[in-house]
Amino acid sequence: MKQITTIILLSFISIISFSQGAKHFTFKGIPIDGELESFTNKLVDVGYKIEEIGNEGSLLNGTFAGIKNSEILVYIIPNKNVVYSVSVIFPSENKWRHLEYDYFSLKENLTKKYGNPISCIEKFEELYGDSDNDKLLALELDHCIFETFFETDKGRIKLHIASSPLAGSHVLIDYIDMVNYSLYLECSYDDL
Question: What integer is the mean pLDDT of 84-102?
């Protein structure tokens, strides 16, 4: 009888733990929640290497979606040390066709996993020609928008192509937990 009671109690605890973790969006199967060090260590456990840990988050490196040398940025709510968002920055490219290929391949896979996007913009606002270099220049001059949003009841994903003078041109995916993002917004409003 004692053994059955113990099994029932452990099952109940497992259900409670699962339901508490289930309210948060996940990244690599890890709920986007908790303290920075704990979350970062869980990413290390699944194969990522820590590059840096700071007051605003952490930076890791590894393979994501089959693409090596991807950077993983973990963001926390300022002054709370609670993770609310994870971004994947894929290696920079110097050819538009490589960026476009990665973007559309990732979009297809995200659509298979999360369903149709809730929003998608893929356009050049100003283009001086149709060559690969012209398209890359339009990106660098902020004259094109390639972004797709997916949403679930627990979080939001943004897939996009971006360029900056320091980081170069690359594809990014942002994973945002809605529960902790709301907390992040509350903290931001307190600053106003």
Answer: 97
DSSP symbol at 144: E
The alpha-carbon radius of gyration of the chain (Å, integer) is 20
Q: Per the structure block, which two tokens stand in for 77? A: 């709510």
**Three-state helix/strand/coil letters over 147-174:** EEEEECCCEEEEEEEEEECCCEEEEEEE
Whose CA is closest to 116, among 125, 107, 129? 107
Q: Please report the DSSP string for 92-136 in residue order.
A: PBS-HHHHHHHHHHHHHHHHHHH-S-SEEEEEESS-S-SSHHHHH
Q: pLDDT tens digit string along 27-54?
A: 999 999 999 999 999 999 999 999 999 9
Provide the 3-class DSSP secondary structure of residue 142.
Answer: coil
| 176 C-beta neighbours (distance < 10 Å), count | 20
* Cα–Cα distance, 154 to 83 (Å, whole number): 14
Q: What is the DSSP string of 33-94?
A: -S-HHHHHHHHHHTT-EEEEE-SSEEEEEEEETTEEEEEEEEEEETTTTEEEEEEEEPPPBS
What would the pLDDT profile of 94-151 be if each residue is shown by its tens digit? 999 999 999 999 999 999 999 999 999 999 998 888 899 999 999 999 999 999 999 9
Q: Is 80 left (phi over 0), alpha (psi -120 to 50) or beta?
A: alpha
CA distance linking residue 156 with residue 13, whole number of Å = 29
